[in-house]
Design brief:
The protein is of the alpha+beta class. About 20% of the residues lie in helices and about 35% in strands.
């Protein structure tokens, strides 16, 4: 009996020595923050560059020119001035340099270009017969006998804020005249009136 008790005690002691220690939970350590990959960084830089990129021409769009209004109403006088402009390449067909002259507190001399022969300033009757723009201030026609082509030019006062120069070409054999197209606009201050004056001879 004593031998049986000793054998049982030894077995229990051996079993106790062979037990595995309990597993304790290791503290969770957050992984280090992942560094941005070169591809991601490159993409971010690319987006930033696009957002900060200037306009295609490198400059911001220029606003429309607006001249401050005058304190008092001023009447400007507009007229044409024609000057001979010899053509060395074609001396048999002289050309004429045309200018739009505006007289006032801030006079202007606007080069309209060169035309064949001597332009003919059109009056109201001629302008109506040739379908010049209605309400124009003044206009002229230059005719080339060699080509049978007329070059028409008219000046209009638009919206009380600008002078508009329109031009067209008319072929002698065409069933109808061409369409006037704007070649330039000259801004004017508000409170400005424009009238056609006598042509300046020079």
């Amino acid at each position: 009996m004593k031998s049986s008790i000793l054998t049982l005690s030894a077995a229990l002691l051996l079993a106790g020595c062979n037990q595995t220690a309990p597993v304790t939970s290791a503290p969770m350590v957050p992984p280090p923050e992942a560094a941005a990959t070169p591809a991601a960084a490159g993409k971010a830089d690319s987006i930033t560059a696009v957002a900060a990129a200037p306009a295609a021409d490198g400059t911001a769009a220029a606003p429309e020119t607006v001249i401050p209004a005058l304190k008092e109403v001023e009447t400007l006088k507009a007229s044409f001035r024609f000057q001979p402009a010899p053509d060395a390449d074609d001396p048999a067909h002289p050309r004429t340099s045309a200018h739009l002259v505006v007289q006032g507190s801030a006079p202007m001399d606007i080069d309209l270009g060169k035309f064949v022969g001597k332009p003919d300033v059109v009056d109201a009757a001629k302008a109506k017969a040739a379908n010049f723009p209605p309400g124009m201030l003044m206009g002229f026609r230059s005719y080339s006998a060699a080509t049978g082509t007329s070059s028409d030019l008219a000046v209009l006062h638009v919206d009380g804020r600008r002078l508009r120069v329109v031009q067209r070409r008319v072929e002698e054999t065409a069933p109808e005249g061409g369409k006037f197209e704007t070649s330039r606009e000259v801004p004017l201050p508000a409170n400005t009136k424009v009238v056609a004056a006598a042509m300046t001879k020079k």
